[in-house]
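**User:**
If convenient, please work through this fold.
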Amino acid sequence: MNLKLSMVSILALTFLFGLIYAIVFAITIWFLPFNWISLVIMVGFSLGMILIQYAISPYILQMVYRIDWIPYEQYKMRYPHLTEVLDKVVGINNIDMPRLGIIHDGNPNAFTFGHTKNSARVILTDGILEFLNEKEQQAVLAHELGHVVHQDFILMTLVFAIPMVFLTIARWAYYASIFSGGRRGEEQAYWRLAMIAIAILSFIFYYVGFLISLFVSRVREYYADEHSAEVLENPNALSTGLVKIAYGLLSDQGVTIKERNKSKVRGVKGLGIFDPNMARSLAMQSMTAKGIYSRETIEGAAAWDLYNPWARFYQLRSSHPLPARRIQRLNEQCEQYNIEPEIDFSNARKIKEEQAGKSMIGEFLTDVLFKYLPLFIFLGFGVFTIIWLFSYLDFYSLPLISDITSSQLLFLWAIAFYLMAFGYIIKIQFAYRSGFEPRTVLNLITNVKVSPVRCIPAVIEGQIIGKGAPGYYLSDDLYFKDETGLLYIDYRFGLGIADLIWAIRRADRMVGQWVRIKGWFRRGPIPYFQVKIIETASGRIFKNYRKQLSYIWAVLLFIVGIILLLVWIF
């Protein structure tokens, strides 16, 4: 399909869904009473939208990804080792042959989508075919076919629909507290409090339900991993493939972690094979110059998953288990097949202690404080205001708080917005550090102390080999390779229109170019490099102003504080 037509189509569909939802919600608010009938209408409409999205999502994905569909016979000629797995799974489970596709992108990824097990599409990228050996390619394909056999398309649609019902109730109750009338005085006040309480409780249920849905998704990933091990009768094939995919280490060039610790430039530390956010760190080989895995390197890369508190934090909010956890689970299955695990994490704790000591709780709490400082200030004043409101309505009376007038409360909120603005500035200064030094992917990936807030300022040199979301027309992020490995490059401005323009005009043209990138290495569920400046071999320079744009929020908070202060004065 034509590129411009695909982009226009997806943007139009997104706008259309949003417009329809807004119109129906507006009609419900303005023309129907806020009773159980309007609530049933909104819940039913939300479920209907989910069903429509389920129905059309495979076709949308086919429009927005550059997929080279390959007929089965041609696929068999090109990749006979993969069709061995396909034929085995299809024959045993008596399902239709999936539609097979390749995305021509160096970012190693794989995913599947469809309506049922008999209408599945299975996609691999060139990166999977280039960087994994044949057994590992078979293991990745068998994992994706596990999702097909288990009909995870249907299951996960149903699972994620449940929290969406609670979110709809929360929105309905929130708007009911604002727009519903027909009551007087104290009755109206009690009604609004009841609706606010329902909105808060429903949102809590939504969030808990969402976390449970993610947990179910992670369990389905473990089942797909088990399916891969069963098909190949060897869990190690997927384990070694995950090592290559997840950590981005190309070659350690014979340098051990102990030697890097002595060096001045050491690292101071959907249903795809990973979820869309995690998959951005998909990578290739972690091996010595002789082509043999370096256990120390692998353990250094995996230590973050196993021992950094941020790993547990992100695991709860991820649709996929962290790579090290999946490998550990696969290692447990090796006993069933009477084989020894090839990946061993027994020294990972020692490596972590050499870098970060016995406990990392101190660093984690410091990171959390700086990351959420403005939010903590807001929540503190919010709780204070709720306590004051209950006191104001004579539910109970607390000393000092009950004496505060509404005018004084307004003044306190003006101060709160000033404090939030300063908190935002402090957060930015902590998250964007200076001191940029030349690094490699290997230096960066084996750092245990790095986090989404605690960055490593660095300069890396290498080649852009693909896009952050391989094959996706509107992907604004990139995929990078140096002599030691691969790394996801985050080029987002944080401003939607700027990201869209970069994706359309520049991202594709960057693929294949040799670049020098200055920025900040971070790690969430995946490692990534946030761009400050990209310089190409031809001398072109592309700057990213994400840090500068972050100050806009501080400015807005200052402005709100000034407005509240002026209202209080006059």
Q: What stands out?
A: The radius of gyration is 26 Å. The longest strand covers residues 456-467. Confidence is low (pLDDT under 50) at residues 1-10, 250-272, 274-293. Residues 3-63+153-219 form one domain.
